Amino acid sequence: xxxxxxxxxxxxxxxxxxxxxxxxxxxxxxxxxxxxxxxxxxxxxxxxxxxxxxxxxxxxxxxxxxxxxxxxxxxxxxxxxxxxxxxxxxxxxxxxxxxxxxxxxxxxxxxxxxxxxxxxxxxxxxxxxxxxxxxxxxxxxxxxxxxxxxxxxxxxxxxxxxxxxxxxxxxxxxxxxxxxxxxxxxxxxxxxxxxxxxxxxxxxxxxxxxxxxxxxxxxxxxxxxxxxxxxxxxxxxxxxxxxxxxxxxxxxxxxxxxxxxxxxxxxxxxxxxxxxxxxxxxxxxxxxxxxxxxxxxxxxxxxxxxxxxxxxxxxxxxxxxxxxxxxxxxxxxxxxxxxxxxxxxxxxxxxxx
Length: 353
Prior knowledge:
Elements: E1 5-12, H1 16-33, E2 39-43, H2 48-54, H3 62-66, E3 71-76, H4 84-98, E4 103-109, E5 127-133, E6 137-146, E7 154-160, H5 163-180, E8 184-188, H6 196-208, E9 216-220, H7 221-230, E10 237-240, H8 242-255, E11 263-267, E12 275-279, H9 296-309, H10 312-325, H11 342-352
Parallel strand pairs: 1-2, 1-3, 3-12, 5-10, 8-9, 8-10
Antiparallel strand pairs: 4-5, 4-11, 6-7, 11-12
Helix pairs in contact: 1-9, 1-11, 5-6, 7-8, 9-10, 10-11
């Protein structure tokens, strides 16, 4: 009897619903092609529109419900009128932290056929993977708001870097670099952040001694973002903190074809809890319902999900299909210079599969 892989689908808001639909379409097609694949999708209406109706981003028992799934497939959250810190902390970060998804994996690859953002950089020079610490650091959520509403108003935002949290993400990156025979770059800001980033740098140095075969380099965040633009080929595997990872991966998306190709995986490596996979482009309410949203990032995230679940061959086939589709620019959505519609992109992926 085929093993059933249970996937919780949270389409979310805006274009999230549209792009996730195409990803599910592709996964359903794989199920038809492969007798060993059996997906069970269950949908949950959580997000900002749910918040406007109920005052909550998710049901009270949401984490208990999600715990029984093998993976979570998220569209996007965000809607006019709902503060960004509500949508982030009450759904996305709640899941990341609650399920200890402490590794964030974001591929940054300029696919053949995608219009180059950096005119002087050929496609094969933008191909890296950013490993971002995902549950603590600058986004730990600790701090104080003192003397609110007075002329002495003071805000403290505390970054939290534990030995366990810092070492495990750095070690994960070293293992990946070793496995793929690639260089590893650490990005920090040790010259100015004299506690958190000096600690980060020292842990990176300690762990590096256990991996003499891995070539390493370290950059300050300001230099790193410059080199992302002027010389991206120097980066292969990158490891960095929660905040810096958030910044450099959006920059990476910009130099690799735009947010429509930006996928992300929130991983619990031990598989004690489900991991979550998402396009990272946001809900784009201004174009929702127009049929012009680009679903390729959602499809790429589905590829990441399959890899995590053990379907490595299908993960590679999906990515290969995405690469084939982007070489037909006239059929792509308007953000990539074409006149195609959202629903047709999933069909194109299926044709290549």
